């Protein structure tokens, strides 16, 4: 009997899965709620706000998020998950309030950076909790459930924002207040459910002692992580491929609602519903292709290449679609085949190819490349829209990056196979 099973009969690790899924839902409702209401934000600020300025709202958020990743991970190891998560989400709530009360685009930027810093506390804490508490035979599927919170939150954020603001005429700040309530609920849940920081410290000390004992018992073969191993061609091109994958995804998350409204004639709740198709289609895609890749372990490279090229093709079809039905079909397929479907396979491949003692460092560099695209894509696409009057070129840049990144990744791995032959 699991000693952490509560009176309700639910094991602790199951509560963690539900809690973390809810955490991602809350974060992604905030992330996706502003994009569908850019016109309303522009109007509330007196007009004259460019698309570049609006796209920079997302870029500033991700700037804060990227900055917080390494410090948050360090703090999780030193002081425990609750002591990182709860202050982080309190900052997140304050930031959302700042955004809601902002009277200038600059104040929205300040709130966005602070929101990114607050949300940056979640990633390291969440995956430390899953790593330490979920049984090994349930870890993959449970992690997929946790990750699905990002897709659910993204879809709900777009739908609610479009329906309540664009269709019902509520102030755009309504979504911020909804988010604040959800954040407060999450803080209460973190306090009630996550085990005490004393348990964290005991676990950390035990892990350190076990590591020291293992190091003393094993032959001291040191494999140092160097720049040459971190940036050997196959690894470098994996980073580039992930940058391209995330670039396309965050460009879509930020600008698809506005693109549908201004360039494809969608109105009201239809904007949010159509945009949310990408998020909701990604859930079965991630579960299906992860299981398939686990079944055919030696086919990871093929899965990655095919999925990336197909997702690029779906973006191309989205831009060139002449009818709404064709466009929506392309979006659904992009969601099914895109970032959330291919990401677990890339991470699995990376873990197999990283230096034995450098998996954490390699994943850190990998995630840095991916999240850098989330800073660049929103602002750059906004600049393109200001310069050309359309976001179509932004889509084409994403498509080209996906194609080039995939080809470089494939060539690097073909070269490796030839060298081993």
Automatic annotation (TrEMBL):
Domain Major facilitator superfamily (MFS) profile: 16-417
Subcellular location: Cell membrane
PROSITE patterns: MFS (PS50850), SUGAR_TRANSPORT_2 (PS00217)
Protein name from the UniProt record: Major facilitator family transporter
One MF annotation (Gene Ontology) recorded for this entry: transmembrane transporter activity
Signal peptide: none
GO cellular component: plasma membrane
Pfam families: MFS_1 (PF07690)
Keyword tags: Cell membrane, Membrane, Transmembrane, Transmembrane helix, Transport
InterPro entries named among the record's database cross-references: MFS (IPR011701), MFS_dom (IPR020846), MFS_Efflux_Transporters (IPR050189), MFS_trans_sf (IPR036259), Sugar_transporter_CS (IPR005829)
TM region positions: 12-33, 53-72, 84-102, 108-129, 141-163, 175-194, 236-256, 268-289, 301-319, 325-342, 354-380, 392-412
Membrane topology reported for the UniProt record: Multi-pass membrane protein
Species of the source: Levilactobacillus parabrevis ATCC 53295
Predominant place of localization: membrane
